[in-house]
Fold this sequence. Notes:
- The protein has helices at 5-13, 18-21, 98-131; strands spanning 25-32, 35-40, 48-58, 61-68, 70-81, 84-95.
- It has 135 residues and is of the alpha+beta class.
- A 6-stranded antiparallel β-sheet has the order 1-2-3-4-5-6.
- It is globular.
Amino acid sequence: xxxxxxxxxxxxxxxxxxxxxxxxxxxxxxxxxxxxxxxxxxxxxxxxxxxxxxxxxxxxxxxxxxxxxxxxxxxxxxxxxxxxxxxxxxxxxxxxxxxxxxxxxxxxxxxxxxxxxxxxxxxxxxxxxxxxxxx
Length: 135
């Protein structure tokens, strides 16, 4: 991202505004300062219902626990570089939704394609959002 780490991190911490820049995030409802319910949908006609709970918020590191249709965790690591900020995203989840779990075993390539589209939306949206100094 062509923005400093602090700016990118500020956008990522602000879950309530994800639908403004991440096209696949349909809605976010704040539960408390560390927890939000997130509805997201990529290319497949299925909406994931997730509850994200902040576990770590440190300079350059954001980690959330995930519950709902998926269970696990996700981490954004941010590193300043000559061009602004390098962003690394890791996610370790299992499918908690029974119907989706059964489908995941058979439809894994299709679900990976769907997830790739979701993450491309994140990358493009985050890049555009952090390019604006007022965001």
